[in-house]
């Protein structure tokens, strides 16, 4: 969890003064964001502050109207190595009525890997391993529509993990997830961090993931207003009794940002 990037190793994610609009209205007004290899960064902020839009500019589904984006040192427009990135969208976008089994959904996470060649044994092994990692192997043949919200979330995470990505991007992975699934997600994330993956995740509160977070980046109205170790992590600067120094830290500690 060394957050200091080596000079020769490009950041997994770099946004510089990123600007973006939603529905014709400016939403990001100049975001600077870096995720180093192996680093775990949480994006926090009130509803509408631009967290999801920031994630979407990183993966390219919302275009920048200004500023720059690099993935693994490559300008966003030229980046093609999508197998290096696992993405877990906000669950509402992938839920209801999908007529697919758990195994089929997770298998789509291998598409970038084998470039339209038929699935082979190692793909099947990878799918089973990802399902086992999130405790869903025994549900592999079930329809995703029959699962609880927390179980669906585990399936989406298995899909993102099945390609062993170097960068895992997750939008509110804990939202609407039961406690048992939250624990599975925290354990899964810890395993990814231990194998060296970088992680960028949107969170409403740090909650059970707090011990895994290297940096918390707080957004407000499309701007970064705080970027540093999460309060209470033991990494933060400052002195005991410095209560007045930074009320954003207090917001992060409380994890209540709305
Ligand atoms: N597809 C869209 N069309 C129009 N406006 C949008 C769209 N998506 C987001 N917005 C607006 O952009 C702003 C930022 O939204 P964004 O989803 O990035 O915020 P957020 O910080 O992720 O909040 P939340 O916690 O509610 O998801 C909000 O005002 C939102 O209403």
Automatic annotation (TrEMBL):
Q: Which SUPFAM superfamilies match?
A: P-loop containing nucleoside triphosphate hydrolases
Q: Name one GO molecular function term.
A: ATP binding
Disordered: region residues:
227-258
Q: Which InterPro entries match?
A: AAA+_ATPase, ABC_transporter-like_ATP-bd, ABC_transporter-like_CS, Metal_Ion_Import_ABC, P-loop_NTPase
Domain ABC transporter, which positions? 13-246
One Pfam family hit: ABC_tran
Where does this protein have compositionally biased stretches of type Basic and acidic residues? 234-252
**Sequence similarity:** Belongs to the ABC transporter superfamily.
Q: What is the protein name for this chain? A: Metal ABC transporter ATP-binding protein
- Native organism is Kitasatospora acidiphila
């Amino acid at each position: 969890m060394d957050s200091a990037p080596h000079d020769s190793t490009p950041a997994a994610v770099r946004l510089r003064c990123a600007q973006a609009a939603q529905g014709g209205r400016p939403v990001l007004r100049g975001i600077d964001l870096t995720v180093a290899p192996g680093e775990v960064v949480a994006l926090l902020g009130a509803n509408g502050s631009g967290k999801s839009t920031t994630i979407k500019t990183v993966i390219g589904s919302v275009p920048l109207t200004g500023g720059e984006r690099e993935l693994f040192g490559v300008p966003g427009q030229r980046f093609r190595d999508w197998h290096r990135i696992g993405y877990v969208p906000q669950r509402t976008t992938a839920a209801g009525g999908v007529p697919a089994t758990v195994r089929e959904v997770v298998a789509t996470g291998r598409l970038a890997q084998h470039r339209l060649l038929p699935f082979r044994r190692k793909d099947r092994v990878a799918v089973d391993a990802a399902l086992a990692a999130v405790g869903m192997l025994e549900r592999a043949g079930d329809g995703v529509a029959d699962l609880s919200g927390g179980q669906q979330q585990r399936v989406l995470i298995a899909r993102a993990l099945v390609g062993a990505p170097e960068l895992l991007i997750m939008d509110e992975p804990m939202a609407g997830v039961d406690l048992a699934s939250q624990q599975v997600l925290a354990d899964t994330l810890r395993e990814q961090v231990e194998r060296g993956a970088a992680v960028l995740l949107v969170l409403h509160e740090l909650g059970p993931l707090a011990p895994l977070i290297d940096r918390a980046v707080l957004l407000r109205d499309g701007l970064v207003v705080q970027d540093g170790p999460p309060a209470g992590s033991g990494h933060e600067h400052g002195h005991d009794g410095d209560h007045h120094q930074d009320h954003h830290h207090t917001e992060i500690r409380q994890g209540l940002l709305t």
